[in-house]
Design brief:
Length: 143
C-alpha cells in the first residue's frame, strides 16, 4: 500500500467482548508492528435496526477518533464495512471485510482509495482465539 510500500509485519492481541446490554461488540486492540511501533485501538460495533445496517466506530493511537464511522452489511459469508475519512488532507474511502469466520478465528482486510483512485489493499489481520492467559500489553515483535 501507499502507507507501507515495502510491506510490514506485526504481532498483537485483541480483547473482543459484548458491550452494555449485549447490544454491541467492543474491541481493545494492542500491537507492535514494523511501521508504527506500538499501536492501540478501540472499536465499538452495533446493529442499527432502523437503518438495517451494522455501524462501527474506531479510535486509535495514530488518528484519534475523528471521521471514524463506517457501516456494514453481509455480502454472502463476508461482513463488509465501508466508510470515508480524511488523512493528511486527502479524502480516503475505506472498505473493511471480515471473512473466513469460524468459532475460533477470522480474517480482516482493509482496502482504501485516496482522492477517488482505485481501491488498494492496505493490511490483513488474522485473528485467532487464545485459550491461554492474555498476552502482555506490549507483544514481542519478533514472535
Amino acid at each position: 500500500s501507499d502507507f507501507a510500500p515495502k510491506g510490514g509485519t506485526g504481532n498483537g492481541h485483541a480483547d473482543i467482548h459484548p458491550g452494555p446490554g449485549m447490544l454491541s461488540l467492543m474491541e481493545n486492540y494492542h500491537s507492535h508492528n514494523s511501521l508504527t511501533g506500538k499501536f492501540a485501538g478501540h472499536a465499538v460495533v452495533w446493529y442499527d435496526q432502523q437503518a438495517q445496517t451494522y455501524k462501527s466506530f474506531w479510535c486509535d493511537s495514530m488518528g484519534g477518533c475523528e471521521n471514524s464511522f463506517s457501516t456494514g452489511k453481509w455480502n454472502g459469508d463476508k461482513l463488509v464495512f465501508t466508510g470515508e475519512t480524511e488523512y493528511q488532507g486527502k479524502k480516503i474511502k475505506m472498505q473493511q471485510t471480515f471473512y473466513d469466520i469460524k468459532p475460533d478465528s477470522f480474517t480482516w482486510t482493509e482496502e482504501a482509495s485516496t482522492d477517488g483512485g482505485a481501491m488498494k489493499p492496505q493490511m490483513t489481520i488474522h485473528y485467532t482465539k487464545s485459550s491461554g492467559p492474555k498476552p502482555a500489553a506490549e507483544p514481542n515483535p519478533k514472535q
